[in-house]
Design goal:
It is a single chain. By secondary structure, this protein is of the alpha/beta class. The protein has helices at 16-27, 39-49, 63-73, 96-117, 143-162, 179-185, 189-199, 208-220, and strands at residues 7-11, 31-36, 53-57, 76-81, 121-132, 167-173, 228-231. The chain is globular and about 45 Å long.
Length: 237
């Protein structure tokens, strides 16, 4: 997939899936801009990505920060939004503030990123969001992840019509071995992952590079818009 001289913006590009996507985009010839909260993580990510990469701090839960970020980015071709930490907590846990913050960061972060990116985006550009299995499969404690993922998928379908010919899609990711998964799995991570992998048709947990490849595919394919691409090892079967 050639993205030579195109500008790819990755919000959440300092680790995990976002970093893998930024690396893949740079290898495909793109000029890369990454954004996240941590300046230290951004600087470390730059070293991994290589040349022609720009790192700009931003808070994806703050509209003014997102607006300032895109003012500094300037013109772009493609946007991938993968920021926001999922919070899993049952309603009975009385953890409402954290659940609301998680939803707001996921949904409104995606919304405002699209709002401020599109006026600077070329007509053959694209936006890719990310959701997850919680948007279609019930998990105890997954209310915020489910609602925010489903909301982002619905947002993408709507924006695909509003922003056309700019394309807008969502990737529904399965279990992917990232720092976020470390937090979710806790001390029994490897044991839990072995059980999950055995239940999947492909018998393995996803790698960040698996999702990165799918993101670049959506950026490169000019006839896909308004869709949800499932990259989950067959979990939906």
């Amino acid at each position: 997939m050639s993205l030579t001289e195109q500008t790819i913006v990755v919000i959440g590009g300092s680790s995990g899936i976002g970093l893998a996507t930024a690396i893949a985009a740079r290898q495909a010839g793109a000029n890369v801009v990454i954004g996240s909260r941590s300046k230290d993580k951004l600087e470390r990510a730059k070293l991994q990505i290589g040349d022609n990469v720009k790192a700009i701090p931003l808070d994806s839960s703050d509209e003014s920060s997102i607006k300032a970020f895109f003012s500094e980015v300037g013109q772009l071709d493609h946007l991938f939004v993968t920021a926001a930490q999922a919070v899993f907590s049952k309603l009975s846990d009385d953890n409402d503030a954290a659940l609301k913050s998680s939803f707001d960061g996921k949904y409104w972060g995606s919304y405002f990123a699209a709002k401020y990116a599109v006026p600077r985006m070329k007509e053959n550009g694209s936006i890719s969001f990310i959701s997850g299995m919680a948007s279609w499969k019930g998990y105890a404690g997954g209310s915020s992840a489910a609602a925010s993922g489903a909301a982002v998928e619905a947002l993408a379908r709507t924006l695909a019509v509003e922003f056309a010919p700019i394309r807008v899609n969502t990737i529904s990711a399965g279990y992917v071995d990232t720092p976020m998964l470390d937090d979710a799995m806790g001390d029994n991570k490897q044991e839990n992952l072995n059980v999950i992998a055995a239940s999947l048709p492909l018998k393995r947990i996803g790698r960040p590079e698996d999702i990165a490849h799918a993101v670049l595919f959506l950026m490169s394919n000019s006839y896909i818009t308004g869709t949800v691409l499932h990259v989950d090892g067959g979990a939906k079967l």
